[in-house]
Design brief:
433 residues; alpha/beta; Rossmann fold; 3 domains; 14 strands; 37% helix; globular
Length: 433
């Protein structure tokens, strides 16, 4: 295994890596850094947690520092699927480039566009962005991408899953035709293959770990239990077995809020992170979790790839994932950088077929135990009916069809979901002008 000093030469960069505790390059770093420095395109197949971000950021930073005519202009564009991953990549660049003139800015939704445009116009080398917000700024003429020399697509499969394919194609049209493109994906479905062929020129293929691979240093355990006993089991594990950071996954946003509410009721500090949370709140929760102010973070899969904390001790699947590949992504959040990790999954008996799918994908038999909880009265506002006020009859009904959320999940005699006033059922929402 090579040392960083064999892959990189800039003294400040190497000093920063040492200060951050980077000792030996990971496999993808060792394979990618020389190729990036040669200005070749890359098709990288790698999961999160393999050191992928450093594998392209480090050589790109060094390349900028070695330019004779260094300027603060947008040279590298990194596209990511989520705001969380966007911010973490941006923060990684700041740490790597400490005490150098290299600058980066993050472009994502949830904050005012003008501030982001001003940051770019003030002089940056790296633009780290989510596709939707970047395209917004480009269309408004607030950002120009003609100076971009390197395009990085991180977690390309996730971006396609989230429906960003059209945005990506529109952004790519704004870039110079002659450029270096680094393309990374955890999975390689046909759509990814077709897309990669349309933007890569004679790429070097680098594969680190297949999607079905689970690191050997992660112990796996499944508890069969009733849905109503999951909360007790979670509390038991937290109080009796775990001392370090815990990442809990739920299938829904309401489920995440309910888990946090239950833990707080039992004097256990936790925070939830999901798509309904405001961006500032999501950032605060991740910061508290990263710095150790809270030990438990409850998340949905939508934001899971943006959580990059190296010392997570346990990943707990409060809800078993519907897709076996999601299971591999989830538990890959623990056992990073060679540390040992633990993955615990709660499985209801009627969901056993999902566990079978996971074992078939990973080609591993997971240890199984049964848990039978005690009777417990659980009162959670997060899962209860929401009190809403019906609109005053009149014009307001015509503008805003009203849904009675206190009856959510209920159906009428004809099998249709209960909405609100009968007169609104067939009303189409007027388009905003």
């Amino acid at each position: 295994m090579a040392a960083f000093s064999e892959l990189l030469t800039h003294s400040t960069l190497l000093s920063n890596l040492e200060g951050l505790g980077y000792q030996t390059p990971t496999t993808i770093q060792e394979k990618s850094i020389p190729v990036v420095k040669e200005k070749r395109d890359i098709f990288g197949i790698a999961q999160t947690g393999t050191g992928k971000t450093a594998s392209f950021c480090l050589p790109l930073i060094e390349g900028l520092l070695q330019k004779e005519n260094f300027k603060l202009i947008p040279t590298v564009l990194i596209l990511t699927p989520t705001r969380e991953l966007c911010l973490q990549t941006h923060e990684a660049i700041i740490k790597f480039a400490k005490d150098t003139p290299v600058k980066s800015c993050a472009i994502y939704g949830g904050v005012k566009q003008i501030y982001q445009a001003e940051a770019i116009n003030g002089g940056v080398n790296f633009i780290v962005a989510t596709p939707g917000r970047l395209l917004d700024l480009v269309r408004k003429g607030l950002i120009r991408l003609r100076s971009i020399e390197v395009l990085v697509l991180d977690e390309a499969d996730r971006m396609l899953d989230m429906g960003f394919i059209d945005d990506l194609n529109l952004i790519i049209k704004e870039l110079p035709a002659t450029r270096q493109t680094l393309f990374y994906s955890a999975t390689v479905p046909d759509a990814i293959r077709r897309f990669s062929k349309s933007i890569l020129q004679n790429p070097v293929f680098i594969e680190v770990a297949k999607q079905s691979t689970v690191a050997a240093n992660i112990s796996q355990l499944v508890y069969f239990c009733a849905a109503t006993h999951k909360y007790q089991l979670l509390k038991k594990i937290i109080k009796e077995e775990v001392t370090g950071p815990i990442l809990v996954f739920t299938r829904t946003k309401d489920g995440a809020d309910a888990v946090v509410e239950y833990l707080i009721q039992n004097k256990i500090s936790a925070r939830a992170i999901h798509g309904d949370k405001k961006q500032a709140e999501r950032e605060r929760s991740i910061a508290y979790f990263t710095e150790g102010s809270i030990n438990i973070l409850v998340a949905t899969d939508l934001v899971s790839r943006g959580i990059d904390v190296e010392n997570i001790e346990y990943v707990i699947n409060f809800d078993i994932p519907l897709d076996p590949e999601v299971y591999v992504h989830r538990i890959g959040r623990t056992g990073r950088a060679g540390r040992s990790g633990h993955a615990v999954t709660f499985c209801e008996i009627e969901e056993k077929h999902r566990l079978d799918d996971i074992e078939a994908l990973t080609r591993q038999e997971i240890k199984k135990l049964n848990f039978e909880g005690k009777k417990e009265v659980i009162k959670l506002k997060s899962l209860g009916p929401k009190v809403v006020k019906a609109p005053t009859p009149g014009k307001s009904q015509e503008k805003n069809p009203w849904y009675d959320h206190s009856k959510r999940g209920q159906f009428d005699d004809a099998g249709k979901r209960v909405h609100a006033h009968p007169g609104l059922r067939n009303m189409k929402k007027k388009k905003k002008r």
